[in-house]
């Protein structure tokens, strides 16, 4: 089993930055694909970014150029650097792990393990 714990969320003004962390425990996730999803009130969970075990990254169009996903396998941790935040980025952000050496995938059902999430609120 893999346990995932997110941190780093908070309240920030539009244009600001936050860095989310996702710490994994239970197993090393160095050979897992990892992803970040978000869910705003009244909306479905949405793929934000994913990273393969080899470091290839993928983003939803709305965050390209603003968000960066990265991983530190020595720390068993994945990060999401979020810059130029907008009010529409407000959501609960969750990280997820997928047991694959392939692409991370952009569907909820692609992933095997989930964290509880961290709230990100961007004020205008």
Give an overview in words:
By secondary structure, the protein is mainly beta. Helix content is 0%, strand content 49%. It has no helices and eleven strands. The chain has strands spanning 3-7, 10-13, 18-25, 33-39, 46-51, 57-59, 67-72, 77-82, 91-98, 113-114, 118-123. The strands form two sheets. Strands 2, 4, 5, 6, 9, 10 and 11 form a seven-stranded mixed sheet that branches. Strands 1-3-8-7 form a four-stranded antiparallel sheet, with no helix packed on it. It is globular. The model has no long low-confidence stretch (mean pLDDT 97).
Provide the β-strand percentage band.
over 45%
User: How many helices?
Assistant: 0
| Total strand segments | 11
**N-C termini distance:** 40 Å
**Major sheet description:** 7 strands, mixed
Q: Which blocks of ≥5 consecutive residues have pLDDT under 50?
A: none
Structural class: mainly beta
- The H-and-E topology, N to C, reads as EEEEEEEEEEE
What is the average of the pLDDT values?
A: 97
Radius of gyration of CA atoms, rounded to a whole number = 13 Å
Which term fits the overall shape? globular
Give the proportion of residues in helices.
under 10%
Characteristics:
124 residues; mainly beta; 7-stranded mixed sheet; 4-stranded antiparallel sheet; 11 strands
């Amino acid at each position: 089993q893999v346990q995932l714990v997110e941190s780093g969320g908070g309240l920030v003004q539009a244009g600001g930055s936050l860095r989310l962390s996702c710490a994994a425990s239970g197993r090393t996730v160095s050979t897992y694909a990892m992803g970040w999803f978000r869910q705003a009130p009244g909306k479905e969970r949405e793929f934000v970014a994913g990273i393969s075990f080899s470091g290839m990254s993928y983003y939803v169009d709305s965050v390209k150029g603003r968000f960066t996903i990265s991983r530190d396998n020595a720390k068993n941790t994945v990060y999401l650097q979020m810059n130029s935040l907008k009010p529409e980025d407000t959501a609960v952000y969750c990280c997820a792990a997928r047991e694959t050496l392939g692409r991370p995938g952009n569907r909820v059902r692609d992933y095997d393990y989930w964290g509880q999430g961290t709230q990100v609120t961007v004020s205008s």
